[in-house]
Design a protein that fits this description.
The protein is of the alpha/beta class. The protein has helices spanning 81-87, 113-118, 131-145, 185-192, 200-221, 223-226, 248-260, 268-282, 288-291, 301-308, 331-348, 375-387, 407-410, 424-433, 436-439, 494-506; strands spanning 13-17, 22-34, 41-54, 61-64, 75-78, 95-101, 108-112, 121-124, 150-155, 168-171, 318-322, 355-359, 393-399, 415-418, 452-457, 464-468. The strands form two sheets. The chain has an eleven-stranded mixed sheet. Strands 4-3-2-1-5 form a five-stranded antiparallel sheet.
Length: 552
């Protein structure tokens, strides 16, 4: 190494030669004092003791923590390359190689997969510091080390679709089937009221009729077994949150039946509004992933769970859920459903099939401010953070604003990868999350370079400043809608603008969008004939003509 590379400075490791071991320490402060009546000075340094190396030259072993403390006169040297290799040597097959030490690029940096996953991890860093690339690197290495581990990634900006090749299933609103009856009461209310607080009177009606609609569906399913005997749906012990199917046609029938019993016309307005609200969402093509075949029925929960969480994996153990195409009003509820089902499946299967749930832009779904965001989503992520490891559901959080993320949730992540953070509040939260021995490294956080990271916690041998290794081009994250600041040389004419407008309007209508090669068209939606309303349920088919529209 050159002279500049071996200077003792803040953040460097030193070795202290004791009688029975070699202590490993990190320089936290340097100072000098001029000698009286002389041009010479004495340099001194403060250090944090991190661990010690035992054994002779042939068989050395590093352990965290210190059992032998140094005494006056013990020799202090900058740590050697061989000692660094001993400290960071992989200790088993569960170690994955993620980069090199900043202090000595010839020494490889490893992470313990078991410790990182079983105790959750977080990647923190401002925009543009290589955070997404680091996430791609970590997940690809995890999949390589644990080929049977299932991974579910919430891809907020649709940038990871090409990072994992044929090992990942990419889902978006065009190919996702997430039946509305899988949503619990709070989640379906959030969908119907477009993220706004529900009207109390309408909520009371929904809370009453949803369990009855589930009972009616169960009655239809058991009709052959029960013969002509009619069962009162009220006697079937379903709650509004029981994940069993029901049909919208039954739900509207029950609301209409109650409305017909009211003598006061003004009281019927509430029922009219609720029915109109359900029909509006039901017929919005943006919600087709929820309401396709809403009146046909069928208990597809096993198929949905198997498809979403890769059971069996069939060579694709990873699911990438691209959220950018979902209506903004429904994203929170969709994330809530996915988090909740991931935890509940782990709970009721006793952790038989481990799953890593990775949440990008985590501060959007679990905000530190309880007045921001959707409460059930925060609750679902919090349950995974606090109890998931007991049931084989592990959490990976990625955020650029850790100060805006719920402190209780991030405190459950025992391995942290901190990249450049310029905000004072973010740095303060990071200081509160790491041990005192590692806190001195945090002074480097605002000045870290691209791909540089400070790694703390159970997954690494020591608090470490390292540099993520290069990621192959085919694994680099790139948004599907990535554009250049340089306009196309061909220019755009009126025909192009018209085609864009057709695509724009087509996103919120049932009309098929004409195929135009000048823009990236969405596939045409499938149109099928909806079943007619059944008069036996007490509905007037002409009155609810909206339900006759074709499904998408």
């Amino acid at each position: 190494m050159g002279l500049s590379a071996v200077r003792a400075t803040v953040g460097r490791f030193v070795s202290i030669r004791c009688a029975n071991s070699t202590l490993v320490a990190m320089i936290t402060e340097v100072s000098c004092e001029n000698l009286p009546a002389s041009d010479e000075y004495i340099a001194s340094a403060s250090v944090d003791l991190l661990g010690e190396i035992f054994g002779g030259p042939e068989r050395t072993k590093f352990q965290r923590g210190v059992t032998n403390y140094p005494t006056i006169g013990d020799t202090v040297d900058l740590i050697t390359n061989q000692e660094l290799r001993t400290v960071y040597a992989p200790t088993g097959s569960d170690q994955i190689h993620i980069g090199t030490l900043q202090q000595d690029p010839s020494v490889l940096a490893y992470v313990d997969v078991e410790e990182m996953l079983s105790k959750h991890f977080a990647v923190l860093g401002s925009t543009g510091v290589g955070k997404s690339t680091g996430v791609s690197l970590l997940l690809n290495e995890i999949l390589q080390a644990r080929p049977n581990l299932r991974v579910f990634l919430l891809d907020v900006h649709n940038e990871y679709g090409r990072c994992f090749g044929d090992r990942a299933l990419v889902l978006n609103p065009r190919n996702l089937k997430l039946p509305f009856w899988l949503f619990n009461f709070e989640e379906i209310v959030d969908v119907l009221f477009a993220g706004r607080p529900g009207v109390p009177e309408e909520l009371d009606i929904l809370a009453e009729v949803i369990p009855m609609a589930k009972g009616i569906y169960t009655q239809y399913q058991n009709a052959d077994r029960l013969g002509l005997k009619r069962i009162d749906p009220k006697t079937i012990a379903y709650t509004v949150d029981t994940p069993v199917p029901f049909r919208l046609v039954d739900l509207i029938s029950l609301i209409d039946e109650r409305m017909g019993k009211l003598e006061n016309r003004s009281s019927r307005i509430i029922y009219h509004k609720l029915i109109s609200r359900i029909e509006t969402v039901r017929n919005d093509p943006r919600y087709a992933f929820m309401f396709d075949n809403a009146n046909v029925g069928g208990d597809t929960m096993a198929e949905v769970i198997s498809y979403l969480f890769r059971l069996p994996a069939n060579g694709k153990p990873m699911t990438i859920m691209q959220l950018a195409g979902f209506p903004a009003e429904v994203v929170d509820s969709v994330v809530s459903v996915l988090c909740r089902m991931a935890f509940d499946f782990g709970l009721w299967s006793d952790g038989a099939s481990p799953l890593l749930f990775v949440c990008e832009e985590a501060h959007r779904y679990a905000s530190a401010d309880r007045n921001i965001g959707f409460g059930p989503t925060r609750k679902a992520i919090s349950r995974i953070a606090k109890e998931g490891r007991k049931y084989g559901v592990y959490l990976g959080l990625i955020t650029q604003r850790p100060a805006e993320l719920d402190a209780t949730i991030i405190s459950q992540c025992n391995t942290l990868f901190a990249m450049r953070l310029a905000n004072d509040r973010d740095q303060a939260l990071l200081r509160s999350a790491v041990s005192d021995a590692a806190a001195n490294l945090l002074s480097f956080v605002p000045s870290l370079g691209t791909r540089e990271v400070l790694a703390f916690g159970e997954g690494v041998a020591l608090p470490t400043r390292l540099r993520f290794k290069e990621v192959p081009i085919h694994q680099l994250p790139r948004s599907d809608s990535a554009t250049s600041t340089i306009p196309s040389a061909a220019g755009h004419d009126t025909h192009f603008v018209s085609a864009v407008l057709e695509r724009w309007r087509g996103a919120t209508s049932h009309r098929d969008v004409p195929n135009d090669p000048s823009i990236n068209e969405r596939p045409a939606a499938r149109t099928i004939e909806a079943p007619m309303l059944q008069p036996s349920l007490g509905l007037d088919p002409d009155r609810f003509s909206l339900l006759k529209k074709p499904l998408r």
